[in-house]
Amino acid sequence: RRNYDAGGDPNQPNMGGFGGFDFGHHFKDPNDLFKEMFGDKDPFADFASFFDDVKIEEEGTDLTEEEALMEAETALIRFYTRIGEPAKASSVKEVLSSDKWKGKEIKLYRSLVKKYGQQSAHHATELEHLDEPLERLQSLREKRNNKKDSGGGGFGGFG
User: Could you say which of 40, 56, 110, 139 is the most buried, measured as most Cβ atoms within 10 Å of its Cβ?
Assistant: First the structure.
């Protein structure tokens, strides 16, 4: 019964779970197999620099994070000024650097759409000018954080 459950012929003696198949080959020690493939050199010794020559191109922007922050600040100041809320325009810098919104610029945009999007066509038009600057800023911040997290081994912060 055990041979049958393991995928073998119930009339054959137990073949160690290989179901009576003869591979015609003796298994090698994994260390010997590794040595045959890679020699004495450790193929993972320089793994951290494996992707150094890979270039990632961002679509449509060569902005630094600082420039993207200034662009987002300008867009938000313009938005609040044009919808008649100059008091909020004066606190934009603090809002973008606050723990609540820093790195969550898309969430900020969605919150503004929810709050102002249905008020008037004018508000909706002004909101359209915020999407791209806030998205660019969040993308650059995420990229910086990913670089920071992936240094020093592991797999991009996963190991």
Answer: 139
Angstrom distances, CA of residue 73 to CA of 40, 89, 135: 56, 9, 12
Residue-wise pLDDT for 73-116, tens only, equals: 999 999 999 999 989 988 998 988 899 988 888 888 899 999 99
Contacts of residue 140, defined as CB under 8 A and 6 or more positions apart, other chains included, come to 63, 64, 65, 68
CB 141 within 8 A of CB 69: no
Q: How far lies 20's CA from each of 10, 16, 25, 29, in Å?
A: 10, 8, 14, 22
| Tokens found for residue 55 | 């270039």
CB 117 within 8 A of CB 124: yes
Q: Which candidate, 67, 65, 57, places its Cα nearest to that of 142?
A: 65
Contact 79, 125 (CB under 8 A): no
Radius of gyration of the chain (CA): 30
